[in-house]
Write a structure and sequence with these properties.
This protein is mainly α. The protein has one domain (3-63). It is 84% helix and 0% strand. It has 3 helices and no strands. The protein has helices spanning 3-24, 29-52, 56-63. The N and C termini lie far apart (38 Å).
């Protein structure tokens, strides 16, 4: 598969995801954007919560 075809497939996938997010938000683009942003913050908050519950020794071991 050529690079152009790969890029077009990826763009089509992204267009579909954007359209689906807007559809789920009832056509309201602001609500769709807010939902996507909130969705990005949830994994970050979960990682922060997990990191804060680790013991210092375990955290040092993970850094290697």
């Amino acid at each position: 598969m050529s690079q152009t075809a790969l890029r077009n497939d990826n763009a089509d996938d992204l267009d579909f995801v954007v359209d689906e997010a807007i559809r789920v938000a009832g056509g309201d683009m602001r609500t769709a954007i807010l939902s996507l942003i909130r969705g990005q913050h949830q994994p970050e908050a979960q990682m922060d919560k997990t990191a804060s519950s680790m013991t210092p020794g375990y955290a040092r071991r993970q850094m290697r």
